[in-house]
User: What shape does this take?
Amino acid sequence: MNIGNLFKIAVKALGNNKFRGFLTMLGIIIGVAAVITMLAIGQGSKRSIQAQISEMGSNMIMIHPGGERMGGVRLSPEDMESLKLEDLQEIQTQTSFVTYVSPAVNSSGQAIYGARNTPTTVYGVNQDYLEIRRYRVQDGEMFSEQDIRTAAKVCLVGKSVTDELFPDGQNPIGKVIRFGTIPLRVIGVLESKGYNSMGMDQDDLIIAPYTTVQKRMLAITHLQEIICSAVTEDYTDEAIEEISQILRTNHRLKDTDEDDFSIRSQQELSSMMTSTTDTMTVLLAVVAGISLLVGGIGIMNIMYVSVTERTREIGLRMSIGAKGRDILAQFLIEAVLISVTGGLIGVVFGVGASLLVNLLASYPVFIQPWSVILSFAVCTVTGVFFGWYPARKAAGLDPIEAIRYE
Assistant: This one.
């Protein structure tokens, strides 16, 4: 018997029990749809995190004081003064893998304008900070080198601060706000960046010359942080190694001495968060994949029922010349048809569910072609695997006993 005839027989057999066949497919449909949706959500989250980290500056490198011990106790970065302006200047002049460098000091407090106030943080930086953190000036201008040298009382404000202090929509440029007791003239407004992947409002800030924050707010001469950007993200490790050597030399550390600074990069954060997301995606896909297993068991169960119901039919066919392999192929085709049809419907439902999650919940999703192909391949293999044993049982029936079967 040729494959075409076997295929027609299988289709006819399934057509005689449409509702039962649909219920059998349901497990496969749910399994495939769940796998595609879970993978789409996982990949969407991963891409969203990567995009947000890139917006923060994917090649950003942060240098903090740290590592020093006093009386056997490691001091916190806030208590240490190991980063100086000389370190900043050495990094600016001696590195070949770093493009932008900015000092950073900050102070938290109340920003006040008239009768309105809002808690925020003022960051003392230089002009490179905007390039490193990917900020843009929406209105006004950045402070100048002259403003840094004179510790000028000028600042740029983020959108969140602007909205809180100037809710009536008036232009803040030229207005004088107070941070604590220090008056600051607003010379620029930053473009909005929204919230980052860790839920922090990137627009809730004030930017001022670092000398202004050092001298007028904190009364310090050291730096709380140095922020750099590598030439490209690929050269982050080389840039960190270069900075580390410069700082160790500058701080006169011996080979046996621990670093009195710590260096972190956005690349580390990106790797950690994408690794976490990948793990969660795999777990979600495994949980969803259990539905495929349940669907496969359903196929095996229904094929057993089908073999039992059609025992006499099998006996008749074998008695008029059908071979065991023909019977095997017939029932195997039925199992594969159920799984493949269920898989196709599941793909449609999975893609649709992913788009609905994105539309209704505004959750980032990304449907990768390989996830659709993988789900479809798995459901096909499931049909073959779980349909094989019942088909083998049918092929192994004795024709005489099958005909006599009641």
